[in-house]
Amino acid sequence: MELSPAPGGRWADLPEDIALAIASRLQEADVCALGGCSRSWRTACDANCVWERLFRCRWPAAAAEAAVASRVQGWKALYINQHRRMGVAVSNVIESVGSSLNNGSLESEYYLKAIADLALIADIGFLDVQFFLFSRNHSAIINLVGLHYSIASLHVPPTEVSKALQARQVAGRKVRVNLLKLGRWSYGFRLPDEHESRKISLSELTMAEGAEILAILNRGAVHEVFRLRISLADVDK
Known about the structure:
Elements: H1 16-23, H2 28-35, H3 39-45, H4 48-58, H5 63-69, H6 75-100, E1 105-107, H7 108-119, H8 126-132, H9 140-152, H10 158-167, E2 174-181, E3 185-186, E4 189-190, E5 194-201, H11 202-205, H12 208-219, E6 225-232
Helix pairs in contact: 1-3, 2-3, 4-6, 6-7, 7-9
Pfam families: F-box-like
InterPro entries: F-box-like_dom_sf, F-box_dom, FBXO4
Domain F-box: 14-54
């Protein structure tokens, strides 16, 4: 239901405590948008209590150290600085993946290295993955790295990952997983190598059918799998 101010009143005339209560229930993008509506809303949306809540929700492990720094800097400045630091750190991982691509394909060792590198970033959380890795500006391979990291390392429920993919409009993107299995030896003869290719959408990877593929990706090129590559299945949507 759409809210409207009282007859003869304006949103800008709301009491400060009510304006703060409204701003404190919003997410980052909504706080910034609301703060651009008027001076009174900008004051409410710049309040320390608003940005402290956003910081603590996004980076709970870093909140204690930030609380000390907040005596000098405001929580909004701390949030912006932390967001930028995360952006730089994740961008380094993305660039590493890009430089490791070979004709649009990524070998499993580089794929697993990207996930390991993400795990080395202090305080990285699911919201950071959504901001930086689920972006439509990146390829489905980068989206996949974020998906896999969220489920395997951050232990985010697949249903929540699926919702985030939908919200970022990348759920329908597809990747292709290519496997080369060495032929088995039988009665002194080596059987032909086996090539297997599976095409699957990011959304399907968050379902039961995608668990097997994520498990294969998590193992990498080991045992019977001689080579494992990830590529784009088709032109990104």
